[in-house]
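Thread: Newbie trying to understand structure tokens

Hi all, I'm a second-year student working on a class project, and my supervisor (Dr. K.) asked me to get a predicted structure for one chain before our next meeting. I've only ever worked with sequences, so writing a 3D structure as a token string is new to me. If someone could post the tokens and maybe explain what I'm looking at, I'd be very grateful. Here's the chain:
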Amino acid sequence: MNSHYFRAAWSIVLLGLATGCSIYAPMLPIAPVLRDKNQAEVAAAVHINGRIQGNIAYSPIRHLLLTTAGSYQERGSTEDTTHFYNRQYEVGLGSYWPVAKSWLFSGQLGYGQAESQRGFKGIRNFLVSDPGYDKYKTHYNKFYGQVAASVDIKRVTLGLSYRRTWIDFKSLTYNGEPLPFRRMIRDEPMFLLRTGITRQTASFLKLQATLGCSFNSGNGLDNADDLLNRHRVHVREDMLTYSIGLIFHPHFLPKRAE
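---
Reply by user tm_fold:
Sure, no problem. This is what the structure looks like when written as tokens:
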């Protein structure tokens, strides 16, 4: 078995990786369930670590998919034991293909940018009176490709998506000093479950839960120095992603009687 896929499966077992300590913050892959032109989807989700994300998807013509998303998190301050700040956005272009009445397949290519900062305060003890503060800070660009499939089963939609993300670090520092990480590749599968809040099958408002993982597929090191081992985990760490959110479909709103 390919070692990357074994690591992904192991990450799903180790739920403790969900809150992680990586400077990289994966976005939830956008897997909209649109089946025709002039349909749209607006989504809002909260990650388990408190980061919020919003997505918009729209189909101006049949089979054409336009997407955009953004996320934001600010947790703690530099006085806390841990501190994390992140904001990012992405835009995508893709296509979707309904099959029969229940199945839907889609694919996308996209681009995004992110700014992220994470800090850790050391442990004070009788030997260390001032443990200091480790701070990582980065700006990066990203490119991604994604495929997804979903199936409707009465009022429930089940879906799977797979995203590969190429990270290009524009800057990456540790306590103000540059680190020799330049690139990183992430594999990011995700499972989603949706259910309508109203009794109608074509509900305009749905509840969504997701479970996925993000794991490193390329080391991103220009110089594999053993002294960088302590930094690798904070840059490349494998992690779980799970969230809960709401999906709004304006095209399913009840029509007013003429």
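A couple of things are worth pointing out once you decode it. The first strand starts at residue 39 and ends at 47. The first helix runs from residue 3 to 13. Feel free to ask follow-ups in this thread.
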